[in-house]
Amino acid sequence: MLIHIHPQNPQPRQVKTVVECLEKGGIIIYPTDTIYGIGCDIFNYKAVERICRIKQIDPQKAQLSFVCSDLSDLSKYARQLSTPTYRLLKQYLPGPYTFILPASKEVPKILKSKKDTIGLRVPDHPITQAIVHELGRPLLSASLPDGAIEAYTDPEIIYDEFKNLVDIVVDGGVGGIIPSTIIDLSHDTPELIRKGLGEWEMND
User: Fold this and answer.
1) Taking the model in full, what pTM does it have?
2) Domains along the chain?
């Protein structure tokens, strides 16, 4: 199913349809403030496994991340956020960043890396925010399986490519081609893992 949702003013009825699908263990492709992502309810084990099969990855080796609604929501899934770390997160979120943090007990085991860390995002995108708020818990965030990333900016092309693999493709308009910037905050010093869309100065 292809569902059109307004990128600035998401229609509540359409958002509800997407969330009902997620609650039943469905998989969606959705827009973020960077690129289109594939996602599911993080607490639905079978849905997470489905995504891993589509992407042909081992969830614990892939360092999958997930999308939280805000900083308060994010802090449930990260263990013992220090004051400097919290300040840094507050400075950059919401935005096009994935922060790797020590995982709390709230994180499903299937999503924890072997280092006991988790990647957390709070995208600055009305559709993503609306879905996560309505769902009431985080959404898995993974990039689409390998392909021509330029083609994956167009929801119609994404739908044609993945309609037999996912339950809903959310059309929120043309997507970006640059992924999020990944910062590892699981050690004393922040480490830039991948330079993506967000600006990042290591001396911040």
Assistant:
1) 0.91
2) 2-194 (3.90.870.10)
